[in-house]
Design goal:
Elements lengths: L8 H10 L16 H6 L14 H12 L6 H5 L2 H10 L4 H28 L10 H14 L57 E4 L8 H5 L11 E5 L18 H12 L9 E5 L8 H4 L11 E5 L19 E5 L6 E2 L26 E5 L6 E2 L13 E7 L6 H6 L5 E7 L4 E3 L6 E5 L6 E3 L6 E5 L6 E3 L6 E5 L17 E5 L2 H8 L7 H4 L4 E8 L2 E10 L4 E4 L2 H4 L11 H8 L3 H10 L21 H13 L4 H8 L3 H18 L9 H15 L4 E11 L11 E8 L5 E8 L5 H7 L1 H7 L9 E2 L6 E2 L2 E3 L10 E2 L9 H27 L13 H20 L4 H15 L3 H16 L4 H23 L1 H6 L1 H4 L1 E2 L1
Helix pairs in contact: 3-5, 3-6, 6-7, 17-19, 18-19, 19-24, 20-25, 23-26
Length: 937
């Protein structure tokens, strides 16, 4: 039995069928990648473990499969590099290598035989009837083994050569000089005028049309006279960026637009054109030969593709009466906000009766409208006849708020509708002929109704969808939402044949529970259910397969997720939040973050009874260990796992979190920092402030080896959301607050202008400006980018007001650090600590990341309420007065003429000198232990 995955195979297959028929002493050979299968089949220890093939052994197996014994060794060696890549892709598995080798061998033989047959048929191989194939095979081998890194030197003698293409030929390193003889001899570049007399062309591609500025030059190309032309490609340099909008550096002037519009008018193709592609056009209007049905002469055009239409505000209105147009694709047209009636009725303004108006787009079969990112309105009334044979429609990346009534009433052949990434669309309804519907990332979609013939429905990431009704013919429903925690209620009211589900691991475990699970009544009536949850890059890592008749349920998650003791399963949301200090949504997000190599080895972590800890269980163990003040042994007993498992799982979780969640704790870019500054201004009236720098001491636990009073000094920058955006850690017994600041990358970056270099605030009529800055308490030095409170007596009103606002902001920041230590009790005294100092630093940084994640997910509501309650009275004060106060502060702190300020700066400098003197006395010890005592996050 090869590649067995089900642990019960011994009882289900062998026990019932073979027990009474096999002879005594018979043996059964089983291969599997799951040790649980071996245990389930009661195999004798030790198991025989088959190692993967080494690189050279894999290459040996592969080449024996591909090459015959007649192939010389030198020829084989030329393929070794790519062969080793194939072996690596097969991951050293012999069966995979053997199968691929066989396929490649057969493919090579088929290709060789086809080519030799063509050579013989064309009379290129001369010989007797008996040896033609042998000679052809010889020629073939000589050809593929020859050096093809250069073209022949006499290429220029090919006087009748009409076409040569070297695209994709990466082996050519140099072209022969004679190739110049194939081009125009006077050395001038080709111009559009030179196309004029070439009337036999069937295919033309023109690139770089932005360089053509004279309309008469385009007219001399005489495209309209080339009666044999079938395909035409017209291309300008695209002005659009990755977001589908015009790049700032590629903005278009009115003069450029007018020139390219006139050039395009002169590039009118002949009436016999079959295919037209337009790419990168940046005029404000399309050419006249596309915008009026009276002018358009493309009578047999079948395919039209328009990409990167940067500035046009209207779709072409002269194409609706083309009798053979089958396919249109408009891709990336950011200036189009509305598609009006002119798109379907070129003469709509004449108010003709319906009987006198021809059907628009009579042969259109397929239409794609993609990347019209500002498109909001599509006007098409029910009485206007159009698209009678349209079968497929794709709408993607737009803001269309509703589908036009005419689409559902007139496009009676429409059987496939795809709507992806559309903002504002709330419902899809009343398409009588629709057979397949795909909706992806529609954040406002609430209803899908009245689709009488719908058979296949694919829904992905439509979180507001609550109503699905009026779909009596629906057979297959595919739901994709990796965070989905419960099945939608509407499934219970639909008579489905097949339900395919891609969901969270929590929901999959509920489905896997079958009749005893909370989801059973929603899917029990479905004929066939296939449900999957991903882990890492494996989309179908976990599965549940169910059939209603006969009733059968198979899953590979039963041992890990279906037991009553699984740690993270709780139907009571309030109880879950009280245990994990976060909502299920945040918990699932953290699980998705830590998916990776360090958390994927499932069999390494088990309950005491042998059940494997799933990913969610491991995250639960780690979170509770970090939250709790209990010893690890006590926690392990309550979980049903060993103390060593608690510690190992927590350490792996910390490593994975720091590796994959670092974007939650980082120095902000300019746009993010602008938001922080705005909040500091609104809440504390500290305009242009970027954060509060403060320190806290984190005590060692009882198992540390640095003495009873050991502490870690954490320097942190807190933003206006109470997030920690920068930390620096060092041993408190070898560092002071000031020395820690001077050694930190924060200090070096700010001193050199790498950070806090964003926009400045003008604070006075004389043009004085305040740059970005942090604030800190009086223990920090006063610096241009670090403002401390005034410490003198009898402060003036502006200075006293500054101190008050300064104090309010620093107090909130200190509370954020206090909350960090209160919530994550592993940071308190007499609590578990890892032995290794670097691991302690990692644990602190992981707690900071988790602190930020909870805030980023907008879930620490109590914290937010208390925060704003304390400072709401500051939010409505006059910002102008604060700017005046800040101006006075900056001006006086910079002035060298004020004796009072000189005294303050000198006093600050003196304190710094004193600290530096203290540092000098302990410098040797600091330098020796620097690598293990400090870490930056």
């Amino acid at each position: 039995m090869d590649d067995v995955w089900i642990p019960t195979a011994c009882d289900d297959v062998l026990g019932s069928h073979l027990a009474n028929v096999v002879a005594r002493g018979s043996r059964i050979l089983v291969t599997t990648r799951d040790e649980r299968v071996a245990r389930g089949m009661k195999a004798m220890l030790p198991y025989h473990r088959v190692d993967k093939l080494k690189e050279d052994d894999g290459w040996s197996l592969l080449k024996n499969q591909i090459f015959s014994c007649e192939t010389n060794g030198h020829e084989i060696d030329t393929f070794k590099d790519i062969g080793l890549q194939i072996v690596a892709k097969c991951d050293g598995l012999p069966l995979a290598i053997k199968v691929l080798g066989g396929l490649l061998c057969q493919k090579e033989k088929n290709a060789m035989n086809d080519i030799i047959g063509m050579w013989i048929g064309e009379g290129f191989v001369h010989g007797t009837l008996d040896n033609l194939e042998e000679l052809g095979s010889k020629y073939y081998k000589e050809l593929i083994n020859s050096d093809t890194s250069a073209l022949p030197d006499n290429l220029g003698k090919l006087k009748f050569l009409q076409f040569i293409s070297l695209s994709g030929s990466k082996q050519f390193v140099k072209l022969p000089d004679s190739i110049a003889q194939l081009t125009i001899e006077d050395g001038d570049w080709c111009s559009l005028e030179e196309l004029g007399p070439l009337y036999q062309l069937t295919h033309i591609g023109l690139k770089g049309l932005e360089n053509v500025t004279v309309p008469s030059s385009a007219a001399k190309a005489k495209l309209g006279h080339k009666v044999h032309l079938n395909d035409l490609y017209l291309s300008w340099h695209s002005r659009l960026g990755g977001d589908g909008k015009i790049k700032q550096e590629d903005s278009v002037s009115e003069e450029e637009q007018e020139k390219t519009e006139k050039v395009f008018d002169e590039l009118c193709p002949p009436p016999n054109l079959d295919f037209l592609s337009i790419n990168g056009y940046f005029g404000r209007r399309l050419p006249t030969w596309m915008m009026s049905s009276l002018v358009v002469s493309l009578k047999i055009l079948r395919i039209l593709m328009i990409d990167d239409l940067a500035c046009c505000t209207l779709l072409p209105d002269g194409l609706c009466q083309l009798p053979y147009l089958e396919y249109i694709q408009i891709r990336r047209a950011p200036a189009i906000k509305r598609v009006g009636p002119e798109f379907l009725q070129a003469n709509y303004h004449q108010s003709l009766p319906p009987s006198h108006v021809a059907v628009a787009f009579p042969k259109m079969d397929n239409m794609n409208l993609i990347g019209m990112v500002e498109w909001q309105e599509w006007e098409w009334v029910e009485t206007v006849q159009a698209f009678p044979v349209l079968r497929e429609l794709l709408l993607k990346h737009c803001k269309l708020t509703s589908l036009p009534p005419g689409l559902s009433s007139q496009a009676r052949a429409l059987n496939k509708l795809m709507i992806h990434f559309v903002q504002g669309l709330t419902y899809v309804a009343s398409f009588a002929s629709l057979v397949k519907l795909e909706v992806t990332a529609l954040p406002d979609l609430e209803r899908i109704t009245n689709l009488a013939r719908l058979q296949i429905l694919i829904i992905q990431d439509c979180l507001k969808l609550k109503v699905l009704e009026g779909v009596p013919a629906l057979q297959t429903l595919v739901l994709q939402d990796k965070d989905m925690e419960t099945l939608p209620k509407y499934i219970g009211g639909i008579n489905l044949r097949c339900l395919e589900l891609y969901c969270s691991l929590a929901l999959l475990s509920s489905i896997a529970a079958g009749q005893s699970g909370p989801e059973w009544d929603k899917f029990r009536h479905v004929e066939r259910v296939k449900a999957y949850a991903r882990e890492g890059y494996m989309v179908k890592k976990w599965y549940v397969l169910y059939t209603a008749n006969p009733c059968n349920l198979e899953t590979n998650v039963s041992l890990s997720f279906m037991s009553a003791g699984t740690l993270s399963r709780s139907e009571d949301a309030q109880r879950f939040e009280s245990v994990f200090k976060m909502t299920r949504k945040t918990f699932n997000y953290i699980c998705s973050l830590v998916l990776g190599p360090s958390m994927e080895n499932m069999n390494s972590y088990t309950f005491i009874d042998g059940r494997v800890l799933c990913l969610e269980d491991r995250v639960a163990v780690a979170l509770i260990r970090l939250y709790s003040s209990e010893p690890s042994e006590t926690l392990g007993s309550s979980f049903g796992v060993s103390e060593s498992t608690v510690l190992l799982v927590t350490e792996k979780f910390i490593d994975a979190g720091r590796e994959r969640a670092e974007h939650h704790c980082h120095w902000l870019d300019s746009s993010e920092m602008d938001e922080i500054k705005s909040r500091f201004g609104k809440i504390h009236n500290l305009h242009n402030c970027c954060g509060v720098i403060c320190t806290t001491h984190i005590p060692f636990g009882p198992n540390c080896d640095h003495g009873e009073n050991g502490r870690i000094l954490m320097q942190a920058v807190i933003d206006s959301k109470m997030r920690i955006m920068n930390i620096w850690l060092s041993l408190a017994d070898s560092s002071t607050q000031l020395s820690s600041l001077h050694k930190s990358p924060l200090f070096k970056k700010c001193e050199k202008g790498g950070w806090l270099n964003g926009s400045k605030l003008k604070v006075a009529s004389d043009g004085s400006e305040v740059g970005e800055y942090l604030i800190g308490h009086a223990g920090y030095p006063l610096l241009p980018w670090l403002l401390t409170p005034y410490d003198e007596e009898n402060l003036s009103d502006p200075k006293a007001e500054f101190n008050r606002r300064h104090s309010a902001a620093t107090t909130c920041a200190q509370k954020a650090l206090a909350m960090l230590q209160e919530k994550w009790k592993c940071l308190q005294e007499d609590v578990w600590w890892p032995e290794n100092l670097q691991t302690r630093y990692k644990m602190i940084s992981a707690c900071c990341l988790l602190h930020n994640i909870v805030i980023d997910m907008d879930e620490d509501a109590a914290m937010a309420r208390n925060y704003y309650k304390e400072v709401r009275q500051l939010a409505n004060e006059d910002a102008v007065r604060t700017r005046d106060m800040l101006s006075q502060y900056f001006l006086t702190s910079r002035s060298s003429e004020s004796g009072e300020e000189d005294h303050e700066v000198a006093a600050s400098g003196g304190a710094g000198d004193e600290h530096r003197e203290q540092e000098a006395q302990t410098g040797t010890a600091d330098e020796v232990d620097h690598d293990i005592q400090e870490i930056i996050v």
